[in-house]
Amino acid sequence: MALHKQRKIIQLSLITGVVLMLAKFGAYFLTGSNFVLTDAAESVVNVLASSFAFYSIYLSSQPRDENHPYGHGKIEFFSVFIEGTLILVAGLIIIIKSVYGLFYPHALHDLLTGALIIGITGAVNGALGYYMINKGKTLPSITIEADGRHLITDMITSGGLVIGLLLINFTKLIVLDSILSILVGSYIIVTGYKLVRSSVGGLMDETDIKVVTDVVKILNDKRRGEWIDIHNFRAQKYGNDLHIDCHLTLPNYFDLNRVHEEVSLVDKMINNGVTKTELFIHTDPCIPDCCHYCSMPNCPIRSAPKIEHIEWTMYRVIRNKKHFE
Question: Is 6 in a helix, a strand, or coil?
């Protein structure tokens, strides 16, 4: 069901993008403004990005296989990378053409009509962008959310474009066309960089600070005496799928059934309290050095009293060491 919704949303984005791209290029040919061209060029990026996003969502939904034991979800990060790169290229082209326009200006026409067309396309992109961001968070899908944020960027640049065209029309300062285009082109480049940065972080398995913090908090708040420590905690995202692995230290006299029970409790606590995830929990047996911070009641093998309560924090649990090391 979620996959079907994602496809429908991307199809809507793609169709809307094609229609708005044609409208913006119509406004460019009508006005001859480099400023309008900035919006038209970004629309080309919208269409290309939506096309690739549609394919990436299809591929990420494919089941795991022998070559992809974690599934195909990382294609969504690659999709975001392509979108960010295309935005960067569009921004650079806009700046180059605008700098050329500073030295070789040309006459502009029908700026009010162009402003009206751009204003309408910006409003449509804004409405669609907010819709896609909300859906991208609830489904969840980083591809749809990234596409939505791109559309919001397009709405903002369109709003600035309308104001700029009105300013050029009433002041008759043709040089403003190139100056404003350079400013918008710079903003587009910054947006593209942020998308590329986030996608590279995902491809490099960069830690999702919020997810790890939320998981550690609930484990710390509801920890049991049997859970002596948690360490080597790692979280990885594969598209919509989240994978967490960690080491859990338990009393060394627990049998396999008890170990399985404790691991299952950790699994249910995270899945019910924070986020749906696949957990791989490696269990370690306790050793005498754990006694000074162990809360296990009535422990038959305790060699020293508990003298310290160690709070679980993100820094502490991500280390590949027991808490005494």
Answer: helix
**Which pLDDT does position 205 carry in this prediction?**
66
Please indicate, yes or no, whether residues 288 and 302 belong to a single structural domain of this protein.
yes
Give residue 94's domain range.
Answer: 2-203
Q: How far apart are CA 264 and CA 284, in angstroms?
A: 15
The residue whose two tokens read 């294609």 is: 75
> pTM for the complete prediction?
0.63
Choose one of 160, 179, 203: the last residue of a domain: 203
Say whether both 111 and 240 belong to one domain. no
Task: Determine, yes or no, domain membership for 280.
Answer: yes
Residue 157 lies in a domain: yes
* Strand, coil or helix: 279: strand
Residues 178-190 have pLDDT tens digits of: 888 888 788 888 8
| Rounded Cα distance, 2 and 61, in Å | 10
Domain presence at residue 325: no
Residue with tokens 């587009």: 188
36 HSE (CA, 13 A, CB side): 30
Distance CA 265, CA 153 (A): 44
| 223-273 pLDDT tens trace | 999 999 999 998 877 656 678 889 999 999 999 999 999 999 999 988 887
Beta strands in the chain (DSSP E): 229-238, 241-250, 278-285
293 — pLDDT class (breaks 50, 70, 90): very high
CATH of the domain at 68: 1.20.1510.10
